[in-house]
Write a structure and sequence with these properties.
314 residues; Arc Repressor Mutant, subunit A; 3 domains
Length: 314
């Protein structure tokens, strides 16, 4: 845009509105008012001499000229953000923004890790999107965030990952279920049960279906629910059994963990990012923090040592 007097703030506002499809969400992300964002967009369009965004009803669309500008500035803004963070790091400030996307089940442990991280690095703002697995994969494919946390990295994707902590799956039932309290329940007994399960495509659902398929056991789903809390309530109400991450269970009233052969199914949580992505200083700092603070999550020393070894090897 040679000859045009365009400011960094104008480009940041345009990129945010184009990416989020909303002036209000862009303002929230930039920590400014919506009129301030609108003013930056207006000044940028006046300088360009063409409409870059257009609003039809309540929806925001990027014009042809806007797409040209977006292709030009998106990579440049990311590089500028990394430059700012690098300068801050050289000054010993460790500042910037960390953007993380996580699957819903991580809400049971991510706050316990982010709290100490934010306390140690008060200059870093953390934005965490909690979404289902399908939406997280969309964000990963679009490189919308710095890092991603999930329980089952997708097969065949060009990604890198760090193994974090155990994410074991257990069978739960209501305390009044006939199998509650029994020892050594054969896996084949599960063929006679009905299950309350997560939606198709969730990491837990995929792992459960794989387990039952490997054992040659029919997996009968009575009900699909989109949250672990709803599943636990349904199980406590006697609507069926469920297989959930052990991290979702505290001292939940009305629930019992069944002693079923083959369970718990051993899994892990993973920190994931696209292969070849140049991680920002802040993202690299967060990886180092995870390596040093996994015990905060109650990880067994053996698993922590293995994960630390993996992280340190990079």
């Amino acid at each position: 845009m040679a000859g045009m007097r365009v400011t960094l703030r104008q480009l940041q506002a345009f990129e945010a509105v184009a990416r989020l499809g909303s002036f209000s969400r862009a303002a929230q992300e930039m920590h400014v008012t919506q009129p301030a964002v609108s003013k930056q967009i207006r000044l940028l369009q006046e300088e360009a001499g063409l409409a870059l965004l257009e609003q039809i009803g309540k929806r925001i669309f990027v014009t042809e000229a806007g797409h040209e500008l977006l292709a030009t500035c998106a990579d440049w803004l990311e590089r500028w953000e990394r430059f700012e963070q690098s300068i801050g790091d050289l000054k010993g400030l460790k500042r910037g923004r960390l953007r993380i996307a996580t699957v819903t089940t991580t809400k049971y442990f991510m706050p316990r890790l982010l709290g100490p991280f934010c306390k140690e690095y008060p200059g870093i703002d953390v934005s965490m999107e909690v979404v289902n697995r399908n939406r997280l994969l969309e964000r990963l494919a679009g490189n919308e965030d710095d890092l991603y946390v999930m329980g089952l990295p997708p097969d065949g994707w060009d990604i890198e990952s760090d193994r974090l902590l155990e994410n074991n799956l257990v069978v739960i039932a209501s305390t009044s279920h006939p199998l509650a309290g029994h020892k050594g329940i054969p896996a084949q007994a599960m063929a006679n049960e009905r299950f309350v399960a997560r939606e198709q495509g969730s990491g837990t659902r995929i792992a459960v279906e794989r387990f039952f398929a490997q054992e040659g056991i029919a997996f009968h789903v009575r009900m699909e629910l989109g949250s672990n809390e709803a599943i636990k309530q349904a199980v406590a109400g006697g609507l069926g059994l469920a297989v959930l991450s052990q991290s979702t269970l505290n001292s939940d009233c009305g629930l019992a963990v069944l002693d079923v052969a083959g369970f718990p199914v051993r899994r892990h949580w993973y920190l994931v990012w696209p292969r070849g992505k140049q991680l920002s200083v802040v993202a690299t700092t967060f990886r180092a923090f995870l390596r040093d603070n996994l015990p905060l999550l109650g990880m067994h020393s053996r698993e922590h040592a293995q994960a630390s070894s993996l992280l340190a090897a990079d």
